[in-house]
Sequence to fold (502 residues):
Amino acid sequence: MIRSCIAVVLVCCCSMLAHAQDTSKTAPAKKEVRAAGIWYGTPDAPKKAAGALRLAAYNVENLFDAVDDPNLSGEFDDIKETTSKPRLEGIAKMIRALNADVLCLEEVESKECLVWFRDTYLKGMGYDHVASMDASYYRGVEQSVLSRIPIVSVSNCTGTDATISDMEVRRSDAAATALAGAWSPPQKPLPERFQRSPLRVDLKTKDGYELTVFVVHFKAGGVAFAHQRELEALQTEQFVADMLLTNADANVAVLGDFNGTPNDMCIKALRMSDRGLVSAYDWRFDPKAQRDVYTTHASSRVLDYIIMTPGLAADCIDKSFFVLGTLHAPSDWDFNKADTIPPPAGYASDHCPIAIDLLTAIDKPASSFKRTEPLPAASTRAVSAPEGPRGLRLLDGVKATDADIALATKLVNAGWNYTMPKPKSKTAAWDNPNKQSTWFPGYWENASTKATSVAQPVESDGVKGSFVGDGAPAPKWIAGGPPNAPTIVEWLCSTSDGIEPK
Fold:
């Protein structure tokens, strides 16, 4: 009897425990719903500096007009995608608040759709120039540009330019190490082409400032398609590299929806490129702000970027990059049911716009100073800065001593000449404090032996008139703003370039 009671108690206890365990598995804590609101970015766009050009990117989440495209039918019939009037008004409100001069868009149906949207909802914005081309995407959306400055040319990838499979050779172990990351597992079969061709648009201001944008929308789909995004990024980086071979100071931006987070290789392949490309996030208005201030997508991720060449980066206004906050729907809203349960009034897109401001003055060439006269005899020679903001200010009024001239004469007689620091980017000027401007540092070179030296060569022991350098090669360009002014001896031994000392 006692054993029977014990058995019953054990069975009951076990049953109760099992029920408790089952309950814990089937009744997880309900996730709190986040109410509609501006979750990310800054609620107001900063005011543009006088004369600045604002460059921006914005994924408008399927901007479709009500015109039926006969090329799209069945599952992808565009008439089903017609953007509602409240959303069109929401998108227009964001674009007006953004106030960009060059606005790069993703997920636009067509040029005709964009022109209609501009004429209907963006009157008075000054977007006289429009670019949009078929991206060869089955769903019928493409990248586009609305611009206040003239568009010179528009193109996208066709033929071999659209091929990305040849970039597989660049996904090497050495490249992964250089990027401090790991490539994604390969897809099978190997991705062949861009899912959505990048849109290249060349622009030129009335003052002659030239800018090229590659508007991208890399393949979505999470980890399963990371390989394709990496190939798309590598091919886009190659397009930029080809431009830099022709013009190292080219003003180029790759911007749009990359569908990757900052540490994904499709982002690193561009922002850590050995071409010196940099991310606009380096110019954010508050580097210490919380992550949400620079989050761009409703999924709490950073997916949108502006990646720039050194020449363009040097034109950026410090602390001018921002993410403009847009109204997000409640976290439990299902966009697949938008036809029956529309998003809240004021909703525009699941992405936030991003922007950075540029100063586009073009009268910033490297110095044309060339000194061809022989070194002066042992006497003093004044160094003065030219009129205007540029010049060798730190040597203004300084006089070369007899010792300076004697040493410089020995160096020149031994074949050593000094190449002055030279601006690389268009905004690199001695009076420009921008720490992102790029320069070629000065260095020494022997005309006879072709030896180079970063440090000033020193006289050899026991060999009168012979000077030896440190053997360092001619320096590559660096960022960080203007270098230190050259010494009197360096200036006296210079043969060309530099900063126009008189």
Remarks:
- The chain has two domains: 37-359, 393-492.
- The CA atoms of residues 13 and 19 lie 10 Å apart.
- Residues 2-26 form the longest helix (25 residues).
- Confidence is low (pLDDT under 50) at residues 1-14, 363-396, 497-502.
